[in-house]
Amino acid sequence: MKIPMSGVERVDASPDQALAFVSDPNRVGRCMPDLEDLQVADARHFTATVKVGVGPVRGHLKMAVAITPDPTKPNELDLAVKGSGMGSGMDMTSHVRVAPADGGAAELHWTAEAAVSGPLASVGGRLLEAQAKKTTQNMFAAIRTALQTAGAAGA
Amino acid sequence: MSHHIEITVNGTHQALDVEPRLPLVFALREMLDLTGTHVGCDTTSCGACTVLVDGTPVKSCTMFAVQADGCSVETVEGLAAGGELHPLQKAFWENHGLQCGFCTPGMLMTAKALLARNPRPSEVEIRRGISGNLCRCTGYQNIVKAIQQAAAEQSTAAAAGD
Amino acid sequence: MIPAAFEYAAPKTVAEAIALLRGADSGGKILAGGQSLVPMMRFRLAAPNLLIDITRIPELRIFKEESGYLRIGAMVTHGELERSAMVGERYPLLASTARVVADPIVRERGTICGSLVHADPAGDWGAALIAARAQAVVTGPAGERTMPLDDFLVDTFTTALGEDEILTEVRVPTPPALSGGNYQKIERKVGDFATAAVGVQLTLSEQGAVEAVGIGLCAAGPVSLRATAAEGMLIGKVLDDASITAAAAAAATQAEPTADTRGAIDYKRDMVRVLTSRALHAARAAIRA
Amino acid sequence: MAIEAPSAPVLGQALKRKEDPRFIQGQGRYLDDIRLTGMLYMSLVRSPYAHARLVKIDKQPALAVPGVLAVITGEDLAGLGLHWMPTLAGDKQMVLATGKVLFQYQEVAAVVAESRAAAYDGAAAVEVEYDALPVLVDAKHALDPGAPLLRDDREQKTNQIWHWESGDSMATAAAMAKAEVTVKQDVYFPRCHASPLETCGCIADMNKATGRLTLYVTSQAPHVYRTVLAMVAKLPEQMIRVVSPDVGGGFGVKVGVYPGYVVAVVASIVTGHPVKWVETRTEHLGSTAFARDYHMNVEIGATKQGRVQALRVHTLADHGAFDSQANPSKWPAGLFNICTGSYDFAAAFVDVDAVYTNKPPGGVSYRCSFRVTEASYLIERAMDVLAAELKMDPADLRRKNFIPPERFPYTTPLGWTYDSGNYPANFEKALGLIGYDDLRREQTERRARGELMGIGISSFTEIVGAGPSAQFDILGLKMFDSAEIRVHPTGKALARFGVRHQGQGHETTFAQIVGSELGLPAADVLVEEGDTDTAPYGLGTYGSRSTPVAGGAAALCARRIREKAKKIAAHLLECGEHDVEWADGKFRVAGAPERAVTMQDCAFAAYTNPPPGLEPGLEATYYYDPPNFTFPFGTYVAVVDIDPGTGEVKVRRFLAVDDCGVVINPMIVDGQIHGGLTEGFAIAFMQEIPYDSEGNCLASNFTEYLVPTAVETPHWETDRTTTPSPHHPIGAKGVGESPNVGSPSAFVNAVVDALSPLGVRHVDMPLTRERIWRVLREHGVVSA
After folding, report:
1. pTM of the predicted protein model
2. Which residues contact D736 (CB under 8 A, 6 or more apart)?
3. Under CATH, which number does the domain B3-78 receive?
4. In chain D, how many domains are there?
């Protein structure tokens, strides 16, 4: 099943800082919700193991993430996630655009589409959509929080 | 880690060492060789594995053997007491209440519990009562008929016994 | 299928069970009837380290009327409730719900409290007991706390239970005179989760106006839902076709179902309307003079 | 061949089934009940993706799991040349995936372990890396220019598998052009699944010392399995024994050879132990043979008075990732061109295009004689569409167009020769029994009150008993079937057959045929099936072929015994053979019927006192090659009421009047009809395997693939007429599939009839509440 999602996060950081943050595997990787393990392969790739826990459904997903800056639009990039675990597959493509906001702050405009395959989709499908949306929103919210903390620490 | 359990199965005391994750149905089938109880699904839907635990029908794929410690379990193999067919077994045979036979043991155990609680059920009550057991072959009609016949026979026998 | 390996404990008291939960460091899971949990474990979508079987705790079997409430302990099964003459006489909402939960064999092992803790928005008891204005009794290391069921059910698969707490009981107010109730469910076949379902608990005044009404919606949102607008517009009104139609429409507006193999959003929302109307009619018919 | 009057009352009696005592006492022996010494368990790792490149399989985590002994992948099988296998339909199919996967739940790796639990643990631990590819789910887009190419292993770089035609396209086009009235309708028969209560499974036991492979397997066609295994695994056929123990329902899903069986054989060879593999329900629904998935477009040309003239059908068939349907090899669309049904068409033309999609393979199963269900549904639905166009009562339209009884044997424009039929008599019996005219009057009254009541008729013709060897074979194996009878000295008999029952009651009905032919009580005839070491070669039980083919073999084999026994009788009666008559179950002297000997007498003499010059013993084998198919028919009437608030359909009444020729055991025939109607009901109202845009199977277990319970299932009314088959040795036609073939259209016709005041002509199955509700809303009906 394909789950389309989108959102806007206003962050207390400059557009450049925000862009640098989401382009950095070390930093954006730590914003994966319920992160258990993070392995950074290079400047553009990392692997995150995350915990899944929705009521009785518990398990781990291993996600390989590739960050691809848009070659023509310097403020935009793609995050491609290839996940597996619990006998299932979880692939997500997301696109992030960093836009300036009032007061020198920035906005992250993000769209994402998750595709879930396997038992998670066929057994858990009835309850999956809401959960996938929540998890993705949490990830971008975590980015906002992290930037805020970084901003506060830097000030 | 395995757990030691003691259960009574069809009147016989059994002591078993079981891994907690072992569903009761596999303990019956593979440790006690009582293969009459079948497995038909993964979702507690089909009822092929129905047995009676302390008289209550239970889908034995969804109860762990370790949970049955101290309980009395009845399976299809225990129905024909003393070699005489149970009225339900006889009625299923006479009314063509089975075809491939795979759902039959679970269906019989459910019917036994049903009649124990409601000795003269209506057709609607029987259909509701067996709605946790799936059958792919018979369309249920002859199963319902068989349960009605067994009910009539049992209550006649009970009346004669009074 | 066989679940992943786990440890098993069967405590004899609630205190022991809570201690085991604490010790399991969020890897523990309470096993009551197991009719939702075990299938998930067989699919290995759930894999607790420790299963704490509470079926051997006698105090959790409480099932009686006391101080204006029907007390339903954690180990009371759907089947036990379904067969209770007392429930049949005085709690028509609960009686009509118990008849349509899962299938008759699952009902023999599955428990009302277990179903609430599972917090599946398509579970029947959430909607029925919200309509009945039930209270959840939660026991933890610090003792008992009680809350409206509305607050207990937080989100899909999520309740207000702490990691070391157990839902030990649910308390349903004993309906006063001139009360009736009913549960209406659409399921594709026996044993299916609800496509949509609605529970109604109703009390009329001597004059025939609505004195109190509870309407709970099943499979109509991320969590069991109270149809607050519909309830509000019925209070003080005479329950006639017009007020029922209006309330049913309000309930449908409030519903936020998701699309799945059981139906699209518009269908499910309309079924909330149809079932609310039917449940209100049936609840009124269930009032004994 | 002449029909003989039943020679003993054994035939036609409602005898209690001989197989039942073991089943009601829990003593059946199904596949999973068998445990062999040293047996290991296998579990399969399956793809979560519907279409993906297979990047890497890491066995190590699984091998580290306690109890796991081996992990087998497609690459391992490639070394043995076993990673692909031929299908019965002339395609090939992956055993374990190499390179890429083509449907969700496709077999990717196998884990062999000491216990069931360890096998599951191991399967969960295997790490597989995939690269998702674009997914093709909708068959209607399979031939689009931009569609992903699924089978890049084939020479033809297209998703089209084959194109098949039947009939005269020019003549049909001409007749259609001249017709006063034409109707056209798209009709989809959804993808569904037989899903018997017992899933598929096997135990492969390769004995290294003897070199002999025993395969215990849930099979409807054990001999076919043996031959296929010999060809696939290149084992000498005499070194393979296939045993099909009690089978917990088949309905066609246990005809094909599945990858798991081949892997289990390899696993047994590799480990030197017996290896058991039993599917989970998810594996069963997600990977074994589905049924139907035919997108059909039908056109009928007729006169204004309602006389049908021409039929044209275009079909798109979704075959999934491999063409592995179990059809007769020269008939890629099976017997689909039976679609002219019970009606006298002057011209007809049918074509079918089969395509690949990212779904599991299959296509022929679920109580259907090779696409006959689709054909019957199509014509019965189309007749109602025509009736609506002509504003005629659908019963009258049928009456006008039935093939008249005097025209049998009747040859259809698509080439079939119907053996026998009396459609008007059967039809009028059904309409009389249900009270058709009264129902129509009641309907008028209810409609006036705004109620939705519908009456649906199906007057179908089936084609079963594949099949005559001139045209019908599977992988070259002619579709005969066989019987072997041994009469023991004490007059008791053992009868063995090449078919394999799965609940149809062969142990009783074949004993009745043999007993009736030999003058023995059915109780004295033991029927055995399922072991290729002992049973004569046969093609198996499916397509309602057991009675028409193996039943014919049973009768003729018994008559062969009788011929020999007659010589012995003459010897015992001390008369010439030509003076001996077989009458009332005994050999009698012509003109002195009181001088008689029984079959038991002859059997004893065959071993103790054979006539001089006659070979001792009393045994025979018969391979029966049917001269034609048989053509059972019937009339089904459904009466439904629709809840306008929820869209729920209540089946108020359902009457089935079948004609399956001579009845062997009426109790068993009624049971077959009840079961088939229930499956037809399920298909009409609730069963479908849908896939989402990613190719996820959305009905992979019994919480989503709906099997009706006793509560939803209607009460069935049954009756029959008897028109014997002129060519079958006992006049029987077969019945197993008729109720499933004939009933879906009756249900749908009834629902569409209920909705017809709104102008509705067709609604596709399954007729879920939501689908009906949507039709009602689209036509402005809103109700509480």
Report:
1. 0.97
2. D367, D504, D544, D546, D672, D676
3. 3.10.20.30
4. 3
